[in-house]
Specification:
By secondary structure, the chain is α+β, with helices and mostly antiparallel strands. It is 45% helix and 29% strand. Strand 6 and strand 7 (164-171) form a beta hairpin. Helix 5 crosses helix 8 and helix 6 packs across helix 7 (177-187). The chain is globular and about 50 Å long. The model is unreliable at 1-25 (pLDDT under 50).
């Protein structure tokens, strides 16, 4: 092989590896709520999506992008289950699993949460993430919630965007496929499915903050001298 061919081949491999890494890095999802009330009604949870506490959590998530040196996006969301609902935030983090856990631990700690949940894409992971994009009733969060409940989906997160709503379902035990497909048919939704690592982590009110802090300490010990949050950096630059 001549030198020109080898150089071109090497460049192509670099581009392919870089593209694959970028795609993988974008497949990280975290879910955390600012809500600390119990037995929140669906209407109250939907109203909470426009609350000051929701905006505060969104901004904190975005500001952590400077700390972990990775792109973070955060979107208003509605988390609902058979037991109730709460306003929530979908966090997408470009980075590895420890970085994702670190970001969620900081958000969970500061929002006084008992638990957070995440999904990190891995081809051989033990969990699945389904994303449904309905063609009908795209913005009606009440109708979507009731349809998912009737389909037997115990936990789901609804993320409004534009004229539609994306539905995220983490299947920790891989026993929801039939129910997800039933919901997809009812909603006439496009379905995507990813394999990966997922975990609901935290604890009760007293121990959750301790566990989040332990996760934070481990990450910061392995990654010393992390930069401050974006808002602090901007304030210093003025």
């Amino acid at each position: 092989m001549n030198a020109k061919f080898l150089k071109s081949r090497s460049l192509l491999l670099v581009l392919i590896v870089g593209w694959a890494s970028a795609v993988s890095a974008q497949r990280n999802y975290g879910f955390v709520s600012p809500n600390t009330k119990t037995e929140l009604k669906l209407a109250d949870a939907i109203a909470g999506m426009s609350s000051a506490e929701e905006s505060k959590l969104l901004n904190e998530a975005l500001n952590l992008s400077c700390v972990v040196r990775s792109r973070i996006t955060a979107l208003r969301a509605l988390g609902s289950s058979s037991d109730g609902a709460e306003h929530s935030v979908l966090v997408r983090v470009n980075g590895d699993e420890p970085t994702l856990r670190y970001v969620l631990s900081r958000l969970g700690r500061d929002a006084d949460q008992k638990y957070v949940i995440y999904f990190h894409r891995q081809p051989k992971g033990a969990a699945d993430l389904y994303i449904l994009k309905p063609k009908q009733r795209g913005r009606n969060l009440v109708a979507l919630t009731h349809a998912l409940e009737r389909a037997g989906i115990p936990f789901r997160t609804l993320v409004p965007s534009g004229n539609t709503t994306a539905i995220y379902i983490i299947d920790l035990d891989r026993n929801l496929h039939a129910k997800v497909m039933t919901a997809a048919r009812t909603l006439r939704a496009r379905v995507s499915r990813q394999s990966g690592n997922a975990q609901l982590f935290g604890d009760d009110e007293r121990q959750a903050k301790v566990k989040f802090q332990e996760e934070i300490n481990r990450y910061e010990a392995k990654n010393p001298n992390l930069p401050p949050t974006c808002d602090v950096q901007k304030a210093k630059a003025k």
